[in-house]
Amino acid sequence: ALAVGNESTPEGPLYYIAMELVRGDSVMAELKRSHSLPYREALRVAREAAKGMAFAWDSQQLLHRDIKPDNIAISDGDKKAPLGLVLFDFSLSGQPLDRIEVGTPQYADPFLGDRVPKRWDLQAERYSAGVTLHEMATNVLPQWGDGNSDPRLTQDELQLDGDLFPAGLRSGLLSFFQVALARDPVHRFDNAEAMR
After folding, report:
1. What is the pLDDT of residues 13-38, one digit of tens each?
2. Given a cut of 80, is residue 160 above it in pLDDT?
3. Which of 35, 58, 65, 85 is deepest in the core (most CB within 10 A)?
4. Which of 106, 90, 176, 179 is nearest to 137 (CA)?
5. Cβ contact 145:156 at 8 Å
6. Who contacts 171 (Cβ-Cβ below 8 Å, separation ≥6)?
7. Distance CA 71, CA 107 (A)
């Protein structure tokens, strides 16, 4: 982002992000073309995404509220800048935190309704990032139980298919996603830096 700010208006605060023009495609478009990102590319994308999210969360107290592959662009770069990532569509970031139903359901923390208070928070944001990273690595969404039930309605734990990951990375990736997508937010990563 080139600038993050807010202005006072008669209707209340107006938040804005001024960004550079991005020439490239979304991570989702790349997944549809390739069925998954090569692991080196997925790791690079994940590291850059974690840096951007850390800046938004930790420096600006900005919650995106709809992190998903459709909202991450892979820029083509130019002479001044190499390939990079841009998180865009912050249209939900100004929604009241108690509106836990906003965002794309497949990427949203399904357990927000179980919390007291029922509010979107950084743990929910990192959960969405974890789902996105899982899909980038495997081209499938993570599943709870049999995959057909709403995670909130089952006591089953997250089902991760280790065969979707390369043998040399399997153990580390399984451990990462068990933490990133833990049912209880207390057991998730404490901050974006820890996800790197």
Report:
1. 776 666 667 777 888 888 888 877 77
2. yes
3. 65
4. 176
5. yes
6. none
7. 12
126/42 Cα distance (integer angstroms): 17
The DSSP code sequence of 115-152 is SSS----HHHHHHHHHHHHHHHHHSS--EETTSSS-GG
The three-point CA angle 13-192-96 to 5° equals 30
